């Protein structure tokens, strides 16, 4: 029992401290009126941390109401993603074939939204997948998008 008392606060601390990359809110629309804040669809943008010139836009459901206002609501797994080349591509280092580039909590402790970048070496493209995971059972809901260098430049990949 003593180990449980130590493990739970450490788990919660790691969840709250785990997302170094922050998304910028672009806008939102209300979908369901609630007295203490409506349910929304929120559109956010973040730049790929290792590929300059790529911005990803994620739309996702955000739960309102009293539980949403105090940060204890569990948001749904619904999300969509579109990544675009917004400037010259600058590869800061060779890329792993698979890497989590963004994560955000979707409930108090156990659920998160993930964005994973894959490198399709055969087609010379960056493929971005968004999905929701959970400690016990994740969701099969997902969305995908791709960005290919316009000038034919090869994507550097870690061996």
TrEMBL record:
N-terminal signal peptide: 1-17
Keywords: Signal
PANTHER family the record matches: PROTEIN CREA, PTHR37952
Name of the protein described by the UniProt record: Protein CreA
Gene behind the chain: creA
């Amino acid at each position: 029992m003593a180990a449980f008392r130590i493990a739970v606060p450490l788990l919660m601390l790691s969840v709250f401290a785990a997302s170094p990359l922050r998304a910028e809110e672009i806008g939102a629309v209300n979908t369901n009126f609630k007295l203490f804040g409506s349910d929304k669809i929120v559109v956010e943008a973040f730049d790929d941390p290792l590929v300059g010139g790529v911005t990803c836009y994620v739309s996702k459901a955000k739960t309102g109401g009293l539980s949403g206002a105090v940060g204890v609501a569990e948001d749904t797994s619904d999300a969509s993603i579109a990544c675009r080349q917004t400037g010259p591509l600058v590869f800061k280092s060779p890329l792993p074939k698979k890497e989590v580039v963004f994560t955000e909590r979707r409930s108090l402790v156990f659920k998160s939204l993930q964005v994973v970048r894959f490198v399709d070496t055969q087609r010379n493209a960056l493929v971005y997948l968004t999905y929701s995971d959970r400690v016990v059972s994740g969701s099969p809901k997902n969305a995908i998008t791709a960005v290919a260098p316009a000038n034919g430049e090869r994507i550097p990949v870690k061996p």
